[in-house]
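User: Can you predict the 3D structure for this chain?
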Amino acid sequence: MMQESRVRVVFMGTPEFSVPSLEGLVHDGYEIAAVYTQPDRPAGRSREVVLSPVKKAALEHGIPVYQPARLRDPEEMQSLAGLEPEVIVVAAFGQILPRSVLDIPRYGCLNVHPSLLPRYRGATPVPAAILNGDRETGVTIMLMDAGLDTGPVLSQIVVDILPDDTTGTLSERLAQAGARLLTETLPLWIDGSLKPNAQDDSKATVTASIKKEDGEIDWSMPAGVISRRVRAFEPWPGSYTHWQGKVVKIIEAVSLPDIGDGEAGKVFQLGPGMPALVGVRTGEGILGLLTVQLEGKRPLPADEFMRGQRSFVGSLLGR
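Assistant: Here is the predicted structure, written as C-alpha cells:
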C-alpha cells in the first residue's frame, strides 16, 4: 500500500473541472472520507434537479456526499471536524472556507486553482485569460489561507492557450493538468519535501464575476475583442445579439481585418477564400461568423444559416 493511501482526505468541488482531481485521488488510493459539493439545484427549461458532476462521481465510487448550503454554520463545521480529515483538497467548490475550517486538517487545505497565481485570483480565471488574449495560463496548487486565493504556492504547471480555445475546452485541459499536478504535489507536501512560497501581492490581479448580460455583443467594440469574448463566454453565458426581434447566439467567430466602410453591426457576405462567408462590421475590423444559433433552433454553420435566412445579409444586428 502506498504511503499516501493512508492519508484521510475530504474533497470539496462542484463542476466538471473538479472531477479529474477527485478521480486522481481515488486512483492513487487515498482514503476519501467524504465529498462536499454544492446543493442540488434545478436547471434547464424543465427545472429538473441536477446533480453536480462531483456528486455523480462520488456516488459512483461509494463516497459519502455532504451538501451544506453554508459551510460556516456551526453544526456543519462540527460535522466536518468529526470526519477527522488530515488534508482537505478544494477544486472549484463554490464557497469560501472560513478560518475555522482551514484549521481542521493537520496538513491544511490545498486548492487546485486554474491560473498561475498571483495572476487571476477569484472565480473566473479561465475566461479572464482568454479575454485578455493571453497565450498561456496554468494551474496552481496553493495552501489556502483566509484570503481570496492569496495563500502560498506549492506548485504550478503552465498550459498553452490555443487560438480557438473556449472557456469550455481550456477548462478541460486545465482540469486534467490540475489533477496530475495535485497527485504529484500532495505526497511531497505530506512528507515535508515541499516548502510553500508566498505570492507576490504586487503582481496580483483579481477576476470579475461574469453575468448573463455580459454576453450581449457590443458591435462598436473591435472585432478582436469580440472574438475573444465569444470564446471566453462559451459555454456560459454565451455571446448573443438581436436580429428581427429574436436572439442570435454567435458560437464560433473569427476576427478579420477591415474591408471597406459601414455601420457597426451591419451583416454582409464575404468573398471566396475568406475564413468565413458571413461577416459583421465592428468598431474596428470584421467579425467573421462561423457558427450561429437562432433562438429555438439548433446551431448551424453561418453559411447554412444565411441560406435559410435570406434577409440576414444586409441587416443590422443589435437592439
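The chain has two domains: 3-203, 212-308. The CA atoms of residues 41 and 74 lie 23 Å apart.
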